[in-house]
Amino acid sequence: MRLIAGLETPDTGRIDLSDREVFGTGVNVPPEDRKVGVVFQSYALWPHMSVAKNVAFPYEAQGVSATHAAERTAEHLERVALTELAGRRPEALSGGQRQRVALARCLASDARTILMDEPLANLDPHLRGTMEGELRAFHDRSEVTTLYITHDQREAMALADVMAVMDQGRFLQLGTPQDIYDRPATEKVARFIGRGTVFEADIRGSEASFQGQIFPVSGPASGRVFIRPERVSIADDGIPAKISTAHYRGGFWEAEALIDGVDASVQLNLAHPAHAGDHVALRFTGGWGLPD
Amino acid sequence: MRLIAGLETPDTGRIDLSDREVFGTGVNVPPEDRKVGVVFQSYALWPHMSVAKNVAFPYEAQGVSATHAAERTAEHLERVALTELAGRRPEALSGGQRQRVALARCLASDARTILMDEPLANLDPHLRGTMEGELRAFHDRSEVTTLYITHDQREAMALADVMAVMDQGRFLQLGTPQDIYDRPATEKVARFIGRGTVFEADIRGSEASFQGQIFPVSGPASGRVFIRPERVSIADDGIPAKISTAHYRGGFWEAEALIDGVDASVQLNLAHPAHAGDHVALRFTGGWGLPD
Amino acid sequence: ADVSGKLVLYTSQPNADAQQTVDAFKAKYPDVEVEWIRDGTTKVMAKLRAEFEADAPQPDVLLIADMVTMEGLEAEGRLMPHPDADVSAYASALMDAEKHYFSTKLITTGIVYNTSAPMVPTSYADLLGEDAKDKLAMPSPLTSGAATIHMSAITSHPDLGWEFYEGLAAQGANPQGGNGGTYKAIAGGEKLYGFVVDFLPIRNKLEGAPVEFVFPEEGVSAVTEPVAILSTAQNPTAAKAFVDFLISPEGQQLASDMGYLPAHPEIAPPHGFPALSDIKLLDFDPAAALANDQDNKARFINIFGG
Amino acid sequence: MGGEGVTFAALILICAALFVLPLGLLACVAIGEGLEAFLSALDGRSVPRAIWNSFESSVLSAFIALVGGTATALVLGLTDVRMKGPVTFLLLIPMMVPPHVTAIAWVQALGPSSALLQAIGLAPEIGSTHPLYSREGVIILLGIQHAPLVFLVVLAALRSLPREMSDAARVAGAKPARLLMRIILPLLAPTLIAGYALAFVSALGNFGIPALLGIPARYTTLPVLIWQRLASFGPTVLTDMAVIAGLVAVIAVAAVVFQMWLASRRRNALIGPPQPPLDIRLGRIRPVVETGLALAIMATLMLPVTALFATALVPTYGVPLTFETVTFANFAEILFRQSVTARAFMNSTIVAAVAAGILAIFAIFVARYAAAQNRAVRRVGTLMTALAEMTYAIPGLVISVAFILAFIRPLPLVDVSIYNTLTIILLAYLCAFFSIALKPVTAATLQLDQSLDEAARVSGAGFYRRMTHITIPLIAPAAASGGILVFLTAYNEVTVSALLWSSGNETIGTTIFNYEDGGYTTLASAMAAVTIIATILLMALLDWAGRRAPPGVVPWRL
Ligand SMILES: Nc1ncnc2c1ncn2[C@@H]1O[C@H](COP(=O)(O)OP(=O)(O)OP(=O)(O)O)[C@@H](O)[C@H]1O
Ligand SMILES: Nc1ncnc2c1ncn2[C@@H]1O[C@H](COP(=O)(O)OP(=O)(O)OP(=O)(O)O)[C@@H](O)[C@H]1O
Ligand SMILES: [Mg+2]
Ligand SMILES: [Mg+2]
Question: To which protein family does this belong (chain D) (predicted)?
């Protein structure tokens, strides 16, 4: 992210933003000229300026006329519903309000690309939910390419048009959130995104058989299937298993069950209370055949 | 929490810990004598001491013999699986390891009450999941009363035997997580914990009718019902509604729908993609009658 | 000659005295603009040394405490002779034979004692007595020009010599800082006897200080506050006029009015001082003092430990 | 990059003119006369002994300062003693009193003619050797003089010590004594090391105290040895002085390097936001602790100051202060008759204020470069910091000589001479006191979140706009605090302007020194008394103004 914004210089390679080369052989546009907006993880609001001054700063830096800057600032503040707090200092704002100021400031740079580094990481879950909605609405309205970095998959899936899974600086998979959830490209992605179970099964075309049970699978043929908890149900004629852990998650129990002869424990959701040691019979209703 | 630990002094009232009055009229036991263990939000590990020294400090403070202290320290370190890192400084540990050190130190005080202040708030979601499991296991084994403070309901529900919902310094409800989720005492609790919809319905005994649909409700009779997303399904003969938002959450879509004539939007989960503006027909399968 | 322009004076006279001197000179030569800098001899010389080092000495005229320093500057060729100066009235020992520098007043060093002291000393030898043991104060020749000359004069005295200084050391004398510090130690009663320049006790006694100054039998040493013109002087005409003014009877009267012993034998000394003719001076040869300067200081350090 | 480059180049030029040129010329003098002169300057017993004395007195006095300063800071920072504000204020005043005035005051306070000791019948016997004229006297007084420095540094660190660190120890069952020994002091280790180094370097460069107390005790330190060499008037004085000053600089730099090395080993990364101070309840021992504080104030402030006033109120030194002898003539003389006094107050106020302002801004830039991401730039910034540390330790008198060498001639290009003007004193102050301004600013810069600057960069702001709109406003409190310390130091200093003043350009310090030197002790005392009153008034004014400012601007405000 710091490479894209130009705050750090890569050793080699090429970076294009909105069809303009900003880094490459002999080219290195300084950050102040890249026309990117950044929402920092810590928001990086200037504590000595009021909300309005923070938001107006990019205009000031561009030398825009004062009246014009004031108009645009008011516009942005209204868009993030902060008009009433325009005179406050950042320290007198709540976490969510600060985040909105950071957003408004980043809009004010009229950037063609917006980079957001875990903007919701420091908020409490309630506020995070609200802000998520606002970010989404804002993105829909502004139509600016936005690069959103987060560790929270739920957040990523809720917000993204295109999602990339990165590990140690390399992309593991690039696709829509639904793609990545339902059709992970590798076992690593499968394990990283959401919960699920990977085990060996006998795959024939679009069907897999495991301990006598036959269920539909899709994806590249392989010996390993990946099953999401939603595709595991309790059925009297299912495979016998023993619950190893069960946590209440509000409305359902997140559980793991062990099947004889299988190392991995099966991830499943239960609608009723369960305790470690309970016996259940499992039925798989669908899986994804992992590539080798 | 700081009041219970004795780090701050309340204006009035009475605090008992394990049947001993530690604060009350004329009584104010200083923190060093309260026999409480605290896991601070920031962990508050001492950066100038090694992991082992950090854990051994409570014994040192109690004047326990060096060999005994070393034995117990080794025991606690083993319990949190940190034996190999005993010689490291806290700065060389990952977030989860630090948390475990804080835990071990708090065990070492042989406290009769343990207070944890958002111990997982600073961890990334993956680590948080792992630590949650460890905390639970640890609590089951140690059998010490543990007061666990968190903003994350999912965490609270997964870990707690008894859960309290606090707002502005007052308890709103005290009960098992399942109780609170399924049978919220007030509308405030209902809205705060999990998702759900509150609307006016015609309640008769254990049935409610709403726009011609009849569904079971339980709880104190009142004009208002509260319905969790799990109790909302799509049915051809349902009440017509229009989707207002839908976010992918991995395996399902978190959606809100508007019904004509009702202010509140209905929270529901969808198994299939949906877009704002889609028409659906909703069926309620159960609700909770909120008290007045 | 046309006496005008800017004259730069470096002096170690106390502020008020320097101001009076300059004012009187300007009253006589209103066309001369005098720029003067006043500081302790050590600092004036340090400043001058730095200016020499940078090849840009500023002053035309130097008016400092002692002849030894002047002798040193003369040896380095830093002084300009003033052959026309009229020194006929003065004792020849007070003036440089080549007329490079000219004494302007006598600041003698004798014995001072606190009036609460049990003994009234009359000679240097008295200070070696039992009454004075551990009660002695004196300025250090390493700090004070007057003390250097005092040491040089006493150690070359046939009856006193270095044995006298060794005796002082045995008495527990502890040479400290300059004359100001010594005077304070005696006036404040920390010590009872000591060497100090005359005007401090004589003037302060009139204000009520518990001190008394003694001209010992053997004689007193004197610094003569010599004035000299630098060879690099920008305005030699005015500089010469300044020197002439200081050694004229008019300038000498001014010195007396300021409370110093004038060098001119015919000018009456100020209140509290004996007549010049009644004061016995120890013999002193500035050239020899300069030549022996390093040796004397080394010997002093050997005796007192620096 | 353009603006940044130009500023960086300008900064290097200024540093060259202020630090490298004068010190370089001095170094030329040291080695210019050839090896023989160089070695002869080091010859004899006096130099090794002075090195040892300097080292010994600095090490021991810094230790006294560390213990005293830390103890008072802990009491004021961690416990519930009353009147913290006024006590802090009073404890800091001794630091603002020039060292030679402190020495004079103490000598008078503990001597046979001490009005105070006579009143309680403890005055030493007339004619006895003054107890302060000794090695111990020098060390103790240096310790007292520099304890407030350590006090200030530790107090600031306590403010940023995360409170949970001590909370965790308390719930673990640690009593206050163990809490102090095992948690708080080890956590403060880097600060204690820095405070010790500060006291050490300050003692190393101190002239006033060893000159007034050490010379009579034949306890010569390097700065005093320089003075004595100057007093020998010979043609080689400058070489001698430059060589000895070089020794001081070497010791100072070695001390600072050692400090950085130590601190890097004891680094405890924990800079938190300001926290409400810990209030350890002292209970029954509170009156005892409060009495201790009161005694400390009595000893470090009241005793010397009353002695000074007692001397200022008598007609001539040695006359006991009684109802018959009391006179305000000395005050009348310096305040109404001597025009030099008013001029000195005026000059010192102007020069100290201008120096404080310039250094505060200058420090922001140097600290920024010393924390820069670019390695080469950071190196240059660090070098500037090291130079500042050196000039702080080199005795002021030597700085004076270096500035004469550098600026006696008219400046090239503009052909204006600054010699014998206030400007040269100002430049020398900039050189000598830069380190004081730099310290708080460096600390603040290291704490500054880099993303604040980056956020401005991606907003399209160039270097100057970022400096003026973001960095400077954010660092301003620390810079103001450094500036205030520079002002108070420069206001009273005597050695830097010792050779640079001229008539019309006197400073307060040189005026007091000249009175004392000319034998006018009572006038010197009166002037020193007025200066102390003026300093207290200034501090009170800053204190009052600081009520509105963000925390940290006025260094002593809790
Ligand atoms: N050009 C480069 N060469 C080598 N290493 C690099 C380069 N650019 C970045 N890195 C490394 O990649 C790592 C990832 O950096 P990044 O700032 O994206 O972390 P992050 O995933 O955002 O961490 P967090 O989630 O804690 O914010 C960094 O540790 C950095 O050292
Ligand atoms: N005795 C008391 N009197 C008045 N106010 C109190 C008292 N004790 C606590 N409070 C207030 O209650 C608030 C809640 O304190 P607490 O430390 O529990 O916050 P928190 O919910 O843990 O916050 P966070 O989630 O950010 O950690 C504080 O703002 C504090 O000012
Ligand atoms: Mg990041
Ligand atoms: Mg909290």
Answer: Belongs to the binding-protein-dependent transport system permease family.
Q: Is the CB of A1 under 6 A from ligand 1?
A: yes
For ligand 1, atom 1: residue with the closest CA? A10
pLDDT band at D558 (very low <50, low <70, confident <90, very high): low
Question: Parallel, antiparallel, or unpaired for β C61-63 and C5-11?
Answer: parallel
Atom of ligand 1 nearest to the CA of A169: 12
Q: Can you tell me the distance from the alpha carbon of A105 to that of C130, in angstroms, rounded to the nearest whole number? A: 89
Collect all residues of chain A within an 8 Å Cβ-Cβ radius of residue B178. 248, 273
Q: From the CB of A13, is ligand 1 less than 6 Å away? A: no
Return the closest-CA partner of residue C8 out of C22, C20, C29.
Answer: C22
Q: Is the CB of B169 under 6 A from ligand 2?
A: yes
The three-class DSSP label of residue B35 is coil
Residue type, B173: Q
pLDDT value of position D272: 46
CB D440 within 8 A of CB D551: no
pLDDT at site C252: 92
List, as ranges, residues 126-165 from A with C-beta within 8 Å of D: none
Q: Is the CB of A74 under 6 A from ligand 1?
A: no
Q: Do A35-161 and A197-290 fold alike per CATH?
A: no
CB contact under 8 A, D215 and C38: no
Q: Is the dihedral of CA D220, D224, D225, D230 positive or negative?
A: negative
Q: Which residues line ion ligand 4, judged by CB < 5 Å?
A: B 117
Q: Is the ipTM of this complex over 0.90?
A: no
Query: How would you classify the pairing of strands A145-149 and A113-117?
Result: parallel
What is the distance between the alpha carbons of residues A159 and A166, in angstroms, rounded to a whole number?
17
Q: How far is CA C210 from the centre of its chain?
A: 24
Whether residue D271 is predicted with pLDDT greater than 50 in this model: the reply is no
Q: What share of chain B is helix, strand, coil (3-state, %, to 5)?
A: 30, 30, 35
Q: How far apart are CA C256 and CA C264, in angstroms?
A: 10
Q: Is the CB of A147 under 6 A from ligand 1?
A: no
Q: What is the CATH number of domain A197-290?
A: 2.40.50.140
CB contact under 8 A, D455 and A38: yes
As to burial, measured by CB atoms within 10 angstroms (0-12 exposed, 13-18 middle, 19+ buried), residue C57 is buried
pLDDT in tens, D203-258: 988 888 898 888 777 788 988 888 777 776 666 777 888 888 888 888 888 887 88
Give the closest residue to B30 by CA, choosing from D166, D77, D160, D158. D166
Q: How high is the pLDDT of residue B31?
A: 78
Domain ranges of chain D: 44-326
The pTM for the full model equals 0.79
Chain B hits for A120, CB-CB cut-off 8 Å, are none
How many whole angstroms separate alpha carbon D507 and alpha carbon D422?
9
* Annotated domain spans of chain A: 35-161, 197-290
User: Tokens 């310094």 label which residue?
Assistant: B169
Tell me which residue in C42, C208, C293 faces D230 most closely, judged by beta carbons: C42
> Domain A35-161, what architecture?
3-Layer(aba) Sandwich (3.40)
Please report the residues numbered 144 through 173 in chain D whose beta carbons come closer than 8 angstroms to any beta carbon of chain B. 162, 164-165, 167-173
Strands A36-39 and A113-117, by their bridges, are parallel
Ligand 2 atom closest to residue B11's alpha carbon, by position in its atom list: 1
A171 touches chain D (CB under 8 A): no
What six digits make up the tokens of D468?
């003026």
Using the Cβ of D454 and the Cβ atoms of chain A, whether some distance falls under 8 Å is answered with yes
Note whether B36 contacts D: Cβ–Cβ < 8 A: yes
Q: What is the pLDDT of residue D427?
A: 92
Fold of D44-326: MetI-like fold (1.10.3720)
Mean pLDDT (whole number) for D467-490: 84
Q: What's the number of CA atoms in the CB half-sphere (13 Å) around residue D414?
A: 4
What local confidence, expressed as pLDDT, does residue C251 receive? 92
